């Protein structure tokens, strides 16, 4: 096991066994397949190439004419489903177990790399490896409820040796000021400045994919009308935490789905200008990629040239790293492209020589590690408590000491030093350490107090300060032997160094001044000096005791006042309860009472009921008008379709005209097409408004029904209270009482009925030809198209406004 350490997380990688890269070949279907030159093996794992010798020039031709390539699979006339099952399914499945994976599409331009990797977004059945991988990841997440799995994605484009973020057009990202760079750290290679997006559901991931696809750079040349002019890397990051285990360990992995730009021969593609420059960069980066592959396949090579270009540097982890690597080579089956086919097959055979070492990426969450250590600490404390109870040791606390306990130990140490305490009871190791610490604190305080007292009474001279000593000797305050003047040789007492301004006649006055200075300094220093500290403690305790006794007296007085006030009768002039109107002998009819109730007690509910009902009628009127507009638009659409079909039939009778593969139509048919498009747009807008109105009508109807029910319920309660409940019970029903008959608490909220959006979603699931699995795919596609159509329209408006 190899450990890699970072700031807050620890990374562990389980070393796996080395394995070779899997290489597959997919042949592009064509009507002009070279059956005589290209042969497949019986096991569909080999491909043989044979070229006839050219004997027309009359000299000996010793060029190689036969090649045989051993691969992991040859996919000929294979569907997208079969390609994914064969190439990518196992790599994606192992990614959720912690293994990194890389799937790379390589080949000549126009050989079908982008179709294999991405597929067509218009048809769900023809989707490629990338959208199928996203679907598999989210389906496997649903099958693992015991794990909390998060998925993030990024989309990188390498165009002309520059890095671009294909998802930078999102509002949450925005354009970057600083260019992106490739950075290496102990955890691997990552792109600084590349945005990574969290996706909680399949539809969000598809939206990000389609957003990036619309930002890719494509161009047209002779070999391919929609040729990718850049290398793209779509990365899926997976992070899985266990819900059941409290282990701090979790696994991470990433899947790199690489769609390389196709290599091209300039004499065949006929590239010019910008396309020629792009082709030069593409061929150069693919050449560096092949050099890196050759170096990885050579066991004797120590240095691998990963930094020759951005492509190999960004794929350093994938090429020969700790991941499952799969190469899918796309080739032509035509005789005219046989040289490029041989070059692609040679690259695939070289890739099979590369070995990788797949390993599980395990990480340790620092926060969860702390929680687990706290749990373990609590268990150890409980075990210590059990041992203490068995050993008859009570009142043992192993927690860190608080300020009160530290102050108590300080007091014990002071009393021990003063002699009032014979010994200090030792309970645990923490107390022993704190006792020694308090000894150091007390000693330091006493040294400061002694030095402060000496500085008040004496002038202290450093023995090493010879200048000060000589000055004192000259003044006659110290003899030659170093004794102070007035210092006794034997018994008795002596005075220290007297001040220079001291005179015999001012002795009493100086004593008085000294006492005043001492008392003043004691008041200023407070607790700094021993005397001042004691006085302060004593005065503080007195001030604390005095108000406490006063507070007790005040409380007693308040209690006595309350007792006396409770026993005293109420004054005669206290406000009395309002008298109820006399109850009629027979209750009035309910319709009459209901009108009175709506004007009095139920006025607020009745007002809300009327407002909701007016809103409901207004929404119904708007829905009726919208329905009429929709029917009118539908009739106009039918008439436009009939006119358009008539124009098409007329054009077919007169003969169709084409210009460079495009159909030529007349102006009238073109205007009909534009009109039908606008009508469809109006129809969708009106239909969406109608759906929103129906949802509002349903909700308003629910509110009206709720208000009507509440109004009738309140009326029943009021009617019973006013005319049927005995008068002696009316006292308990006055305002402010907790008893209210008929008011049963609502235990649940009635949910709204199924609206049109739910019906439409169910209709999608049942009527879509590909079934419910394609809903998120089509929803993401529609949202992306709507967004870009809106942006194009707004840009057109802005340009027109500028003109």
Structure overview:
Belongs to the TRAFAC class myosin-kinesin ATPase superfamily. Kinesin family. GO terms for molecular function: ATP binding; microtubule binding; microtubule motor activity. Among the domains are: 276 residues, Kinesin motor domain (Kinesin, 3-Layer(aba) Sandwich); 30 residues; 73 residues, no CATH class; 136 residues. It contains 20 helices and 23 strands. The strands form six sheets. Strands 1, 2, 4, 8, 9, 10, 11, 14, 17, 18, 19 and 21 form a twelve-stranded mixed β-sheet that branches. Helix 11 crosses helix 12. The longest helix is centred in the last third of the chain and has 57 residues.
Write the SSE topology.
Blueprint: E1 2-5, E2 9-14, E3 19-20, E4 22-27, E5 38-40, E6 46-50, E7 66-70, E8 73-76, H1 80-87, H2 89-95, E9 100-107, H3 113-117, H4 129-142, E10 147-159, E11 162-165, E12 181-185, E13 188-192, E14 197-199, H5 202-214, E15 218-219, E16 227-228, E17 231-242, E18 249-259, H6 266-269, H7 274-297, H8 310-314, E19 323-331, H9 338-351, E20 355-356, E21 360-365, H10 366-390, H11 403-418, H12 429-457, H13 466-474, H14 507-525, H15 530-567, H16 590-599, H17 603-654, E22 657-659, E23 662-664, H18 667-723, H19 756-767, H20 775-802
Parallel strand pairs: 4-8, 4-19, 9-18, 9-19
Antiparallel strand pairs: 1-2, 2-21, 3-20, 5-6, 6-7, 10-11, 10-14, 10-17, 12-13, 15-16, 17-18, 18-21, 22-23
Helix pairs in contact: 4-5, 5-20, 11-12, 17-18
Strand content: 15-25%
Number of strands: 23
CATH topology of the domain at 68-172 and 194-364: Kinesin
Query: Looking at the structure, what is the overall shape?
Result: flat
The secondary structure category is alpha+beta
CATH class of the domain at 68-172 and 194-364: Alpha Beta
- Note the main sheet: 12 strands, mixed
Count of helical segments? 20
Span between N and C termini?
A: 67 Å
- The portion of residues assigned to helices is 40-55%
| Poorly predicted parts | 1-8, 486-579, 738-755
Radius of gyration: 46 Å
Q: For the residues shown, what is the average pLDDT? A: 76
Query: What CATH architecture of the domain at 68-172 and 194-364 would you give?
Result: 3-Layer(aba) Sandwich
CATH level-four homologous superfamily name of the domain at 68-172 and 194-364: Kinesin motor domain
């Amino acid at each position: 096991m190899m450990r890699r350490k970072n700031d807050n997380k620890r990374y562990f990688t389980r070393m796996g066994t080395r394995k070779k890269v899997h290489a597959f070949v997919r042949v592009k279907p064509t009507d002009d397949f070279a059956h005589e030159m290209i042969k497949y093996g019986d096991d569909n794992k080999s491909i043989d190439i044979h070229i006839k010798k050219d004997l027309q020039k009359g000299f000996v031709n010793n060029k190689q004419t036969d090649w045989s390539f051993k691969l992991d699979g040859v996919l000929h006339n294979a569907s997208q489903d079969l390609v994914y099952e064969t190439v990518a399914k196992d790599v994606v499945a192992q990614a959720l177990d912690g293994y990194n994976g890389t799937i790379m599409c390589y080949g000549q331009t126009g050989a079908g790399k982008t179709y294999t990797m991405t597929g067509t977004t218009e048809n769900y059945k023809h989707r490629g490896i990338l959208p199928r991988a996203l679907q598999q990841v989210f389906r496997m997440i649903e099958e693992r409820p015991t794990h909390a799995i998060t998925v993030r994605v990024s989309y990188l484009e390498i165009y002309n040796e520059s890095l671009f973020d294909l998802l930078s057009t999102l509002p949450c990202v925005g354009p970057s000021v600083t260019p992106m760079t490739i950075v290496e750290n102990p955890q691997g290679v990552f792109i600084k400045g590349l945005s990574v997006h969290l996706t909680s559901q399949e539809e969000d991931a598809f939206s990000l994919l389609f957003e990036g696809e619309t930002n890719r750079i494509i161009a047209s040349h002779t070999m391919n009308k929609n040729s990718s002019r850049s290398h793209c890397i779509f990365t899926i990051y997976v992070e899985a935490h266990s819900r059941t285990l409290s282990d701090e360990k979790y696994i991470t992995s990433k899947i790199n789905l690489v769609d390389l730009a196709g290599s091209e021969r300039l004499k065949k593609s006929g590239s010019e200008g910008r396309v020629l420059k792009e082709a030069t960069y593409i061929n150069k980066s693919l050449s560096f990629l092949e050099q890196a592959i050759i170096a990885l396949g050579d066991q004797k090579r120590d240095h691998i040239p990963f930094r020759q270009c951005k492509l190999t540097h960004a794929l350093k982890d994938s090429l020969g790293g700790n991941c499952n690597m799969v190469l899918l080579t796309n080739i032509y089956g035509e005789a005219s492209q046989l040289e490029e086919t041989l070059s692609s097959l040679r690259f695939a055979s070289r890739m099979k020589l590369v070995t990788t070492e797949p390993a599980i990426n395990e990480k340790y969450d620092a926060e969860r590690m702390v929680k687990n250590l706290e749990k373990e600490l609590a268990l150890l404390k409980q075990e210590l408590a059990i041992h203490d109870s068995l050993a008859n040791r009570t009142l043992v606390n192993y927690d860190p000491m608080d300020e009160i306990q530290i102050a108590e130990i300080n007091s014990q140490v002071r009393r021990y030093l003063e002699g009032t305490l014979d010994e200090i009871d030792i309970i645990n190791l923490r107390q022993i350490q704190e006792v020694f610490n308090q000894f150091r604190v007390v000693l330091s305080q006493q040294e400061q107090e002694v030095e402060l007292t000496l500085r008040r009474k004496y002038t202290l001279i450093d023995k090493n300060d010879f200048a000060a000593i000589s000055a004192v000797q000259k003044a006659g305050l110290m003899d030659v032997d170093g004794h102070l003047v007035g210092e006794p040789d034997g018994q008795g007492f002596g005075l220290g160094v007297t001040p220079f301004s001291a005179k015999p006649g001012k002795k009493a006055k100086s004593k008085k001044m000294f006492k005043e200075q001492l008392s003043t300094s004691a008041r200023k220093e407070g607790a700094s000096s021993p005397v001042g500290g004691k006085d302060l403690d004593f005065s503080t305790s007195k001030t604390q005791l005095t108000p406490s006794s006063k507070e007790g007296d005040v409380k007693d007085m308040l209690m006595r006042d309350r007792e006396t006030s409770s026993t005293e009768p109420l004054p005669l002039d206290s406000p009395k309860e309002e008298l109820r109107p006399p109850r009629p002998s027979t209750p009035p009819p309910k319709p009459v009472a209901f009108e009175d109730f709506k004007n009095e007690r139920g006025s607020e509910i009745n007002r809300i009921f009327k407002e909701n009902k007016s809103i409901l009628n207004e929404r119904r009127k708007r829905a009726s008008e919208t329905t009429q507009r929709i029917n009118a638009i539908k009739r106009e659409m039918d008439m436009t379709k009939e006119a358009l079909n008539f124009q098409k039939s007329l054009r077919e009778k007169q003969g169709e005209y084409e210009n460079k593969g495009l159909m030529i139509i007349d102006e009238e048919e073109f205007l009909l097409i534009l009109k039908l498009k606008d009508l469809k747009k109006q129809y969708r807008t009106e239909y969406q408004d109608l759906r929103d109105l129906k949802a509002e009508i349903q909700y308003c109807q629910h509110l009206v029904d709720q208000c009507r029910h509440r109004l009738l319920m309140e009326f029943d309660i009021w009617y019973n209270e006013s005319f049927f409940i005995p008068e002696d019970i009316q006292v308990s029903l006055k305002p402010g009482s907790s008893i209210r008959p008929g008011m049963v608490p609502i235990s649940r909220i009635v949910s709204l009925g199924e609206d049109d959006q739910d019906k439409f979603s169910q209709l999608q699931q049942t009527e879509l030809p590909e079934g419910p699995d394609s809903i998120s795919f089509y929803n993401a596609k529609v949202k992306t198209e709507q967004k870009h159509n809106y942006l194009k329209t707004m840009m057109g408006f802005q340009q027109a406004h500028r003109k």
